[in-house]
Every structure is written in C-alpha cells, then in structure tokens.
Amino acid sequence: MSDRDPLSELERALDVLGDQFGVAAGTVPTDVVDEGDSFVVRADLPGYDSDDIDVQLAEGRTLTISADHSEERETDDGRYVQRERRQESLSRSVSLPEPVAESGTTADYDDGVLTVTLPKATDDEDGTSIPVN
C-alpha cells in the first residue's frame, strides 16, 4: 500500500503551474498599465455578470476586485432528475505604485474583461467603492 496522497500531489502541481504563469488558483489575472496621468487595470472575469463584480479602492493605492457567482440548475427528463449547483469566487488586490483620485475613477465590464481607469491623485484620499457599468 502506498503512502501517496493524490490530492496533495495535484494541489502541489497546480501551485507550481500558478507560480510559473504568475497566477494562483482562485485569483483574477490582471494587467496594470501606467498611461501617464492614470492607471488602467484590466482583469479577466469570464462568465460573470457586472452585478457579480465588486471593485473597491482603499487608501487611494489598493484596488481590490472580487467576483462571486452562483447558479443552480435542475433538469428532469422523466426518468432521471439531476440538480447541480455551482459557486465560484475570485479575488485580487493590486497595489498601485502611486496614489489615485477617487473622482473620475471608472469601471466597465465588457465581454468578460473588467477595465478600471484610475486617474492619478495629487493628494491621498480615503477608500471608495467603484460601481461597475
């Protein structure tokens, strides 16, 4: 009998893959672009609705993107009844290299990609919630 734990080995393999590609399981792949007067953060969130996404800005420098989605599906073909539930949650915090202004900050979600535009600040501001269009 072997002392191998296949689930532990699978988790280790997924961690190695995540490290190699720079994305850990359960996080949101993001790009941060410095456009001079603003930062643009793009996050891949396929399969979510804009209502599932929450974008928060804390201390003018930390952007947190989280998404929660759940669905329930039931089928009945006369002989078999099947009920499936799916819950998925992702989260990612990004520290920006410079403070950003709350005013003028926008978030748009289109074809599975969230784009957050954050104008650079001249002074620090408190945290805020950013609505997703």
Write the layout of secondary structure elements.
Layout: H1 6-21, E1 30-34, E2 38-44, E3 53-58, E4 62-76, E5 81-95, E6 106-110, E7 113-119, E8 128-130
Antiparallel strand pairs: 1-2, 2-7, 3-4, 3-8, 4-5, 6-7
Commentary on this structure:
The protein contains one helix and eight strands; from the N terminus they run H-E-E-E-E-E-E-E-E. With 133 residues, the protein is mostly beta strands. The chain has one domain (27-130): Immunoglobulin-like, CATH 2.60.40. The strands form two sheets. Strands 1-2-7-6 form a four-stranded antiparallel beta sheet, with no helix packed on it. A four-stranded antiparallel beta sheet has the order 5-4-3-8, with no helix packed on it. A hairpin with a 3-residue loop joins strand 3 (53-58) and strand 4 (62-76). 17% of the residues are buried. The mean pLDDT is 80.
List keywords for this structure.
133 residues; mainly beta; Immunoglobulin-like; four-stranded antiparallel sheet; 12% helix; flat; Hsp20/alpha crystallin family protein; A-crystallin/Hsp20_dom; Small_HSP; HSP20-like_chaperone
The CATH topology name reads Immunoglobulin-like
Please count the beta strands (DSSP E, at least 2 residues each): 8
- Number of helical segments with 4 or more residues: 1
Broad CATH class = Mainly Beta
The percent range for strand residues is over 45%
Give the SSE order as H and E letters. Answer: HEEEEEEEE
Oligomer: single chain
**CATH architectural arrangement:** Sandwich
What is this entry, summarized?
Helix content is 12%, strand content 47%. By secondary structure, the protein is mostly beta strands.
